[in-house]
Amino acid sequence: MNGDNKHPQLLDFIGPPRRVISLVPSMTESIFDLGAGEYLVGITDLCLVPENAAHRLVRLGGPKSPQITEVIGLAPDLVIANQEENRLEDVEAIEEAGLRVWVTFPRTVEEAIKILWVLVRLFHVEGLSSSRIRTLEVTVEWTTHAARGRPPVRVFCPIGGGESVYGHWWITFNRETYAHNLLSCCGGLNIFADRTRCYPLEADLGQAPAEDPGKRDTRYPRVTPDEVITLAPEVILLPAVGSTGDVQYVQLTELLVKTPAVLDGRVHQIDNRLISWHGTRLAKSLAEIPTYLQLKQ
Question: What is the DSSP pairing of strand 61-62 with strand 58-59?
Fold first, then answer.
């Protein structure tokens, strides 16, 4: 499954595709924000939609567990997926049913904005939404320019975690990801930008030799508390999901008590969508993330 952010064949539609399924929550949000929500017929259980549209949309399960028979049964003109958020086997099953699938895979803010332009042209909503995207482009320029005017802030951002016989570990991301590029635009220096994931887990935690990763994803390494402490983050952004956020916060601050971020009270719980959702959510990310990266002089 190879994501194609441009996907020019999508523009072969004579008019807007009338029946669209989105298996990507951030894309669902963007479609509504750009004024094309009327074309959606199916969404995931994690998608956020306006209250007045919820009654007519079919919920199809999670992004990684969509109900394929229901997807096919809705007879969509187009299914929108994402290389990271959806499973290859699900995308292949949908394609084998003869349905057109657009697999997105933005790894930079620039690529995310290009996808928004594709959406605008695909749904023929240029008049409604072009100015909104141009404003977003200008905001990216302003935010990036402002960030260049001050020293970058060393940031650690765990997006998951777990326990092993070797102790606690966190999942984070390197420079080949959208989250990294977004942090960079906002003035953050990702302390694990150059860290690649090793296989198996024991190798990633420094307890065994690494094997050839082959085609496996190496962009999301598992890192130990000792690694984080050594790299001395000035700010820690902790994406919170559900009611577990406070527990994660307490555990993290105890394990990383020696870092500048914890010592100076700069561990911030944030909405996980700020760092993981591309699309129109970017406007909110650009407004909020830089505020967490302000260091007291």
Answer: unpaired
Residues in the chain: 297
Burial degree of 286 (CB within 10 A; 0-12, 13-18, 19+): buried
Widest distance between CA atoms in the chain? 60
Confirm if 76 and 42 have CB atoms less than 8 A apart: yes
For residue 137, what are the β-bridge partners?
none
Assigned fold of 8-142? Rossmann fold (3.40.50)
Which amino acid is residue 4, in one-letter code? D
What are the tokens at 124? 């023929």
Strands 58-59 and 40-43 come out as parallel
Please report the sign of the dihedral spanned by the C-alpha atoms of residue 253, residue 272, residue 192, residue 202: positive
Cα gap 101→43, rounded to integer Å: 14
Contact 170, 158 (CB under 8 A): yes
The token pair at 115 is 């996808």
| From-to residues of CATH 3.40.50.1980 in the chain | 8-142, 150-292
> pLDDT tens digits for 140-171?
999 999 999 899 999 999 999 999 999 999 99
Rg (CA), the chain: 20
| Measured distance CA(65)–CA(67) in Å, rounded | 7
pTM to 2 decimal places: 0.92
**CATH number, domain 150-292:** 3.40.50.1980
**pLDDT tens digits along 88-132:** 999 999 999 999 999 999 999 999 999 999 999 999 999 889 999
Kind and range of the H or E element at 102? strand 101-104
DSSP bridge pairs for 22: 80
Beta bridge partners of 171: 160, 222
Q: Tell me, what amino acid is at 255?
A: L
